[in-house]
Write a structure and sequence with these properties.
alpha+beta, disordered N terminus, about 10% strand, about 40% helix, two-stranded antiparallel ribbon
Length: about 425
């Protein structure tokens, strides 16, 4: 996300009201829902010892010219053969994200090819992608040394143990969908949230952490929600989504103040307060590496006490709600899946959002579990309302997979996989 032409990146923001207006405008782009996207993330392990700490140099060697600059300074970060860029998270998790596509079958084909290519690159260095949404074997350990992650780690560490876990030990599957026309956006925003508990339970696989049972079906969700509550938790869904998200972004703490070599923000500073002048006259004095007078702001930004639109764009990238609006809607609440397991949830969400009438039916199906995020994360499908909603959503999605253009073989395969998950749970509960 970048500042629009009407808002040059280096322009200072004059007030919280200005900043809210910008967020509401750029985070919810309206138009016919056409494009689909998916981002796959994995923890990375030594193939011969899943418990051994990951070495940044070995990961760099594996990724080669595809490595991001956060791992290898000056890297060209060339895309994989089908167009996906590789990024690396603080603990060495790797992620691929390809171009959005109007064709779901093409999206699946290209992403699968790039995932296979990445797996081959890792295997050549004795590495392999993880199978779960949370590192089941190792404690969190940051291997990236860039100022962003150093500042975030220090800020999150003050709030408890979950921040370092979220940064360094979690891996998610992200499905991206258009926000839709202006009169559809609120419905699509609510639907993706109301589906959340059922889908968290349906695809939960991160029960173990550092070799021990956490007691949570999705300990990844526990870590994410606990990182910086309430801003990493599900938001209230009343009112206009764009206005509500803009207020949330203003009330959220600033995690990275990109000035000098140390990006730590003053404790308690919110973006709204910064935009309203909370740092006016401070000149950021006393912060190691900060020298506003020489223009060294760490990222090409002008010196001064007011945030710019580039600062606001950057702030938005440090917010981690279960669904993040980025012009489109980025679903972030799913555990990473093993192998090609990512295909089923991607198709399920695409089918449920394929037509307003289907989405209306899906909202009714999801209703028993709507808002039951924590029971879903703790108990998974053992929570009765979550299981009921998951079964009904699976049934609805599998009867509508043809709407998104996938062939019958894949419809059958995905339908069998999804029904197997919910039916096995139902039989186990009944026995």
């Amino acid at each position: 996300m970048t500042a629009s032409r009407e808002f040059p990146a280096t322009t200072p923001i004059g007030s919280r009201v200005e900043a809210e207006g910008y967020v509401a405008m750029v985070c919810f782009k309206h138009g016919p829902p056409q494009l689909h996207g998916v981002e796959l993330e994995w923890t990375v392990h030594h193939a011969d010892d899943l418990h051994r700490p990951l070495d940044a140099a070995q990961l760099s060697n594996a990724l080669g010219v595809h490595a991001p600059a956060t791992l290898v300074r000056g890297s060209p970060q060339l895309p994989l053969n089908r167009g996906s860029l590789v990024t690396v998270e603080p603990g060495g998790q790797v992620e691929i994200s390809g171009p959005a596509s109007a064709s779901v079958p093409r999206l699946i084909e290209d992403t699968a090819a790039d995932a296979a290519e990445l797996t081959s690159l890792l295997a050549a260095e004795g590495l392999r992608p993880g199978q779960f949404g949370l590192d089941a074997f190792r404690p969190p350990r940051r291997i990236l040394t860039v100022p962003r992650y150093a500042a975030m780690e220090r800020a999150f560490a003050q709030l408890g143990p979950h921040g370092p876990r979220m940064m360094c030990s979690t891996a998610g599957l992200q499905v991206c969908l258009d926000a839709g026309e202006a009169d559809q956006t609120a419905l699509r925003w609510r639907a993706l949230h109301d589906f959340g508990p059922a889908l968290v339970g349906l695809f939960a696989n991160s029960r173990r952490r550092e070799g021990s049972d956490t007691g949570w079906a999705s300990a990844r969700t526990e870590a994410t929600f606990g990182t910086c509550a309430p801003f990493t938790e599900p938001p209230p869904l009343d009112g206009d989504p764009a206005e509500a998200w803009a207020r949330t972004a203003m009330d959220a703490p600033v995690l990275c103040l990109r000035r000098g070599d140390n990006w730590d923000a003053p404790p308690g500073l919110t973006f709204g307060a910064w935009a309203d002048g909370a740092l006016d006259g401070s000149n950021l004095a006393g912060r190691p590496g900060a020298n506003p007078g020489d223009g060294n702001t760490g990222d090409g930004e002008p010196p001064g006490d007011r945030p710019t639109y580039a600062d606001l764009d950057y702030h938005l990238s440090t917010l981690f709600p279960p669904v993040r609006p980025r012009g489109y809607l980025e679903v972030r609440y799913l555990d990473a899946q093993s192998g090609d397991g990512w295909i089923a949830p991607t198709l399920l969400l695409s089918a449920l959002m394929s037509d307003p009438a289907v989405t209306d039916q899906a909202l009714a199906a999801a209703a028993p579990a709507a808002g039951r995020w924590f029971p879903a994360a703790r108990e998974g499908l053992d929570d009765k309302p979550v299981l009921q909603a998951a079964r009904d959503l699976v049934a609805l999605a599998t009867t509508n997979l043809s709407r998104i253009g996938v062939d019958q073989d894949l419809i059958t395969e995905v339908g069998d996989r999804l029904h197997c998950i919910v039916d096995d749970t139902h039989r186990r509960r009944a026995s």
